[in-house]
Design goal:
alpha+beta, four-stranded antiparallel β-sheet, 16 strands, 17% helix
């Protein structure tokens, strides 16, 4: 992997120095195009902003680009659709608002409200004015939980930008966005709750049934018979009072009945024992039988990433 990264840096260095790439290879792993940009920030030549940002200590705003160089005839010119000398089109998809050129067909389209180009086909998405981002058209029919300007926040896992990311986003039921790759990593690690609000991101009924059986086959000592605790459910946000159990604290809302709960206030008729005080939250993060809930993990909706 280190050797591959080193080769890529050498290749990018050649492009930045003005060397013409081979006919079959632009030298860029991000886009396929027939133009190189003159960086408005440092004046160096790169195929795309990502190639620039990988090598420089500052970022590249492609909307500020005013000049580009044709890779076929090396003519330096203003940003336009076709080369003014040889007439070649710089990209099958061209957006002069974003200064984006791409020969690969990704069903790109420009969203005026997002202010950027996105991929996936305009007919498959709609722009939610509250969330301020493009969402799958199915969510317009099924409905979704709006979170104001949600895409302008960073991913809660990797802390990287979401709005302009080329990585697709996952939209859990709570509405807090995650990169899809980060979401899948959470599942593989046994974490099923949203990092932002702790609400379950999957249908957890199968795990709750498993924990119900564990409670039945794991009787508590008699000294805990009259020990009750107050809990708050992180999924339905209902408060309830339940008998303490080491396996988990079950939400008493019949429509929920989950174990994604947390202790809120001691409410014991007996003096709390050290064993009871060690459990401050439910076993919603319990890794037992976590593999039972992985089925269907990738069936949730995903937002569109930037082009």
């Amino acid at each position: 992997m280190d050797k591959q990264n080193e080769m890529q840096k050498l290749k990018l260095n050649e492009i930045s120095q003005g060397n013409k790439p081979s006919t079959n290879e632009s030298g860029c792993i991000h886009y396929k195009r027939k133009a190189k940009f003159v960086s408005p920030c440092c004046g160096k030549i790169y195929v795309c902003r990502y190639c620039h940002d990988d090598l420089e200590d500052h970022t590249f705003n492609r909307k500020n680009v005013t000049q580009l160089i044709c890779t076929e005839c090396d003519t330096r010119q203003k940003v336009q659709t076709n080369c003014e000398k040889c007439g070649i089109r710089f990209g099958r998809y061209t957006c002069l608002i974003c200064n984006l050129f791409d020969d690969d067909d990704k069903n790109q389209y420009h969203c005026d409200s997002c202010g950027i180009c996105r991929v996936g086909g305009k007919e498959r998405f709609f722009h939610c004015t509250t969330c301020n981002m493009c969402l799958p058209i199915q969510l317009k029919v099924d409905g979704h939980r709006c979170v104001e300007n949600v895409s302008r926040s960073n991913c809660a896992v990797c802390l990287e930008d979401i709005h302009t990311s080329r990585i697709p986003c996952h939209i859990p039921s709570c509405g807090h966005l995650l990169h899809r790759t980060c979401f899948e990593q959470l599942l593989c690690s046994g974490y099923y709750a949203c990092p932002t609000c702790q609400q379950s991101m999957l249908d957890m009924k199968q795990l709750w049934q498993y924990l119900d059986n564990e409670v039945i086959i794991t009787p508590m000592p008699k000294e805990y018979d009259d020990f009750f605790v107050d809990i708050l459910c992180k999924d339905c946000h209902q408060e309830s009072t339940v008998k303490f159990h080491v396996v988990g604290l079950k939400c008493q809302n019949h429509e929920c009945g989950g174990y994604n709960t947390t202790r809120t206030q001691k409410r014991a008729t007996k003096k709390e024992t050290p064993a009871a005080s060690t459990s401050s939250s439910s076993t919603s993060s319990n890794n037992d039988a976590k593999d039972d809930n992985n089925d269907g993990a990738c069936s949730s909706n995903n937002s569109r990433n930037e082009a």
